[in-house]
Amino acid sequence: MATVKLIEYGEASPEVRAVYDDIMATRKIDWINNFWKALASHPPTLKRTWESIKEVMAAGAIDPLVKEMIYIAVSATNGCEYCIRSHTASARKAGMTDAMLGELMAVVGMANETNRLANGYQVEVDTRFMTLPR
Amino acid sequence: MATVKLIEYGEASPEVRAVYDDIMATRKIDWINNFWKALASHPPTLKRTWESIKEVMAAGAIDPLVKEMIYIAVSATNGCEYCIRSHTASARKAGMTDAMLGELMAVVGMANETNRLANGYQVEVDTRFMTLPR
Amino acid sequence: MATVKLIEYGEASPEVRAVYDDIMATRKIDWINNFWKALASHPPTLKRTWESIKEVMAAGAIDPLVKEMIYIAVSATNGCEYCIRSHTASARKAGMTDAMLGELMAVVGMANETNRLANGYQVEVDTRFMTLPR
Amino acid sequence: MATVKLIEYGEASPEVRAVYDDIMATRKIDWINNFWKALASHPPTLKRTWESIKEVMAAGAIDPLVKEMIYIAVSATNGCEYCIRSHTASARKAGMTDAMLGELMAVVGMANETNRLANGYQVEVDTRFMTLPR
Amino acid sequence: MATVKLIEYGEASPEVRAVYDDIMATRKIDWINNFWKALASHPPTLKRTWESIKEVMAAGAIDPLVKEMIYIAVSATNGCEYCIRSHTASARKAGMTDAMLGELMAVVGMANETNRLANGYQVEVDTRFMTLPR
Amino acid sequence: MATVKLIEYGEASPEVRAVYDDIMATRKIDWINNFWKALASHPPTLKRTWESIKEVMAAGAIDPLVKEMIYIAVSATNGCEYCIRSHTASARKAGMTDAMLGELMAVVGMANETNRLANGYQVEVDTRFMTLPR
Q1: Spatial distance between the Cα atoms of B2 and B6, rounded to a whole number of angstroms
Q2: Surface of F (91-110) touching B: CB under 8 A
Q3: Interface confidence: ipTM more than 0.95
Q4: How many whole angstroms separate alpha carbon B97 and alpha carbon D45?
């Protein structure tokens, strides 16, 4: 169980309920997942976090499915079970195939490996990597 | 400077040189970056790492540019300067625009934030996120 | 279950029992939590860790409740469930309100986000931040 | 240098300039640090991040100086140089003494140590830590 | 449960079965642990990861038991339960005593502590540590 | 430069000087590295950390050189430059060869990779790994 009481829709303040309604409308779903119910213990954090996520995950220069995969990459690197499971579910829903998940995990694994090799050997950055693209 | 001597092409053993040649041929470049020169201090690690990277980063179910962006996401999360700079350079070369980098960083930032909110509140995973897609 | 046998008070050596007694006396409690029972599998680590914690968490220039909140901040960042839960319990006992926990998590979340933005863009430290206060 | 061009006030768009003006007014300073100049490469991220930080770091149930110290705790745990240096400077300005910094670092160090002991031994959470307060 | 279907030996493709056979032969065991059954959802990752692990963990300049302890050190630092438990089991099988586990955890804990002290204070590397051994 | 003033031997208080003397005597060296000079800004942390390190890194059930390599493994995983460089120097002095460093880094890299694969797929721990030895 969470370290705070989860706030159900029925008992939520109008302020919290407005965020819940927007989550369900934006995502075209009819339920609220535990993450938001926990954040609702601190309404300003609920509102700010939801508005940020809504803006950041919307379609833009990067495809929403790719954004979900980037979310999984970060969450797997940080070892956040909730985030891995919820974003894997979202990515599946958005069309991620088994092959895509396999390749995603392969890249995440290799990146974590080479991050440590580069740091472990304290490899100096090549001059060519230090210039801005024009 | 690195904690090991960087091995230049001219002084490399045939075994190391074969890997360097494959790196340059695969990437259609005419130089070797410091990461590989450091790994060459332990030839089995050089060979194994290069072959893994070559396989993992090749086109497949996920586009190579997306793979580069996933690499940046992991490296930014781990704070590996070498990896951030080298993969940002690769991604730029592969077509990542300023807007794409901006959105990538925004997702990476938010994922790191919500990872800590989910863990910090110890939010329980919703049952709906625990089932395998069929 | 832990990867080592937990040492209960009744079966503890005099050396371990002395630490357990000091923990209970210092904290004014009548039980030992699992963390210490696991460390007791290696008595020097039990003793050294307890003595360090006792010194570090005592009242000083920083208030003990603030210290507990800093502990939660680090534990949430590292994703250590045991530490998050035990220090959240301690902080609650020491007076942390729901609003304080909400603000604490908000700061922890934002810090993790901006840490990745600063690293992801490899932002150079401003000269003004490089001088020592006098 | 950063991986994106830093946007100076003189060349900023009205949208970016409005954020810069708000930063300077809120913090009662007359300059913009590099972090914001880098975020300005993606104006929506600049605006969203600044508004979040302004809300989160304001006085509330937790004192602003304590919030700065929590920021340092997270940044030291993640090893983000920019964030450590900029928030150490802010905390000093807000009154953090040498003794407070010493105790802060001591808590951060111990928390990182015991996080790994708890995880390394896979210590099971005590039932008493699993209940919500009250 | 995992986010992918675990592939049992009986239902595995010849390609996956060949890897499973090699794992059992190399380790002189008659079962396959869940990690490999999960990787089998993406056969190229299964094959590549197993071949890398086999090469890296074999006896060489470092003793296999020491390699297992290094694996535990990394896994405890990253907080990966699966990895901590499976490599603690392997290390025990290879002869790690309680005293060795105790000292290992003590070093891991202290390293995580001093890593944060060094980063938190942004201690400059001494010139003497910057030279290569000759 | 560090965020605190480094305390040189000549200006140190008797309390700090006693620790410096013990460091030099224990390690049979005639200089103090910057890490301790930074910790000296908070004498209780200097004393406690040094005494812990002295106890933990001494010969015991694990060889001192192996302990140094474990220290490098943790530091490379956390990306702490100071710690990587200082402990690589110590390990070299204690006899670590190029081949040993190469194998150490290879294990560290693979462990970081498989940690993310295990977490990313949320692999369930096998029952056989959940029992205590004996």
Answers
A1: 8
A2: 98-99, 101-103, 105-106, 109
A3: yes
A4: 15
